[in-house]
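Try this one yourself first.
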């Protein structure tokens, strides 16, 4: 591969990579005390059934006091909370 084409490939790769990161960073925070099923399901590792479990837990136990309290929901582990920590809000 010629040095110029290799350099162009690297520039393209990093442009795509940084564009993807910028899009992920722009996603709005999800307030776990008010979000609906569709919004909760947008979190990584949370499908519709886990989203409904979050709502059911919230209705039975009141609002979440902290982001970490989300791990108390059956089917939601600490790892899921960690993966989504930058997108979860408690207001």
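Now uncover the answer:
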């Amino acid at each position: 591969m010629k040095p110029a084409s290799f350099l162009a490939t690297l520039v393209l790769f990093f442009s795509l990579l940084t564009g993807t990161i910028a899009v992920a960073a722009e996603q709005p925070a999800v307030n776990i005390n008010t979000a609906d099923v569709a919004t909760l399901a947008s979190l990584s590792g949370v499908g519709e059934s886990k989203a409904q479990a979050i709502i059911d837990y919230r209705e039975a136990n009141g609002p979440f006091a902290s982001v970490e309290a989300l791990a108390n929901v059956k089917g939601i582990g600490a790892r899921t909370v960690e993966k989504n920590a930058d997108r979860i809000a408690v207001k």
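Discussion: Residues 37 and 51 are 5 Å apart (CA to CA). Helices lie at 3-25, 37-41, 48-61, 78-84.
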